[in-house]
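Open question from group meeting: does this chain pack into something compact, or does most of it stay loose? Before anyone orders reagents, we agreed to write out a predicted structure and look at it together. Recording both the input and the output here so the notebook holds the full record.
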Amino acid sequence: MMHHQAPDSDLVKSANPVPPRDDIERHKFVRKIVSLIVAASAVVITLYVWGIIERHPRTDDATARANLVGIAPRVSGQILKLNVQDNQAVKEGDVLFEIDPEDYRLILEKAKAELATLDQQLAQAHDTLHRLEPLLPHGFTTADAVDKARTAVTTLQAQRGGAIAAINLEELHVAYCKVVAPFSGRVINLNISAGAHVTAGVPVFSLLDTSKWYVIANFREAEIRHMAPGSEAIVYLSSAPNQRFRGKVQGIGWAVKPEGEIELTPASVPYVKRELNWVRVAQRFPVRIEVENPDPDLFRMGASAVAIIKGSRK
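Structure tokens returned:
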């Protein structure tokens, strides 16, 4: 029995039926709606992120800072003993170095000897005055002699005051031969040895105050309106990006040196370099952020940091 086969075209039509025109239009419409939703979502997310950045400015143009004090002796002389090394941690009151006190001790002994001589002369002057005063009413001495005795006592008393002041000063000089740490911190830039001569008022090295740390963060001028003294901040160190530290804005810089301007005033102002020279870019202003919970093992002077302002302007 013979079977008739359907034409190949009929088989193709049966296997791949052509979708109705309405279905094609519906699919195109759905794709357009999805595209619009995706685009709108991207815009919303962008605006949201931009709003966060706008309200909570962030900068990686920041460095950790601490106060640095030059350690200068109050007397001149030769260093007899150096008790510290560069980068050493010291505590408040520790003796950093000692200056040979012998010259100042000799001056002190001389001042004490002069005081002893004055005391003897003063005792004699008092005796003379006490001896002459009872004689004056009886005419056994003159008023001029009594006046001279009184003047001698007054003059020696004034000299004695000066001698005591000289002794106190020389005692201070002897005490100043021991230079102590004014606060706890770390010795910085020590390049001197025992035997060297130091001069009063000239720093020998520096002492870094490690008890209080802050971050100087340079924010664009349009961003500083979103912060104020007291604004909360978050600080990260580049050396420890997984640890965050709390902080508060202590103050916002009110003056920076403009690009290319010659310094005309004796008191300098901060200089913040702009990122580009061939286009107009926003000026940055330094913002000082006091760190509330610094880790003394991580914070170093000049370390790179990231600062984020969390609290908006009040």
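Observations to bring back to the group:
The chain has three domains: 8-50, 59-66+211-309, 69-198.
The first helix runs from residue 8 to 15.
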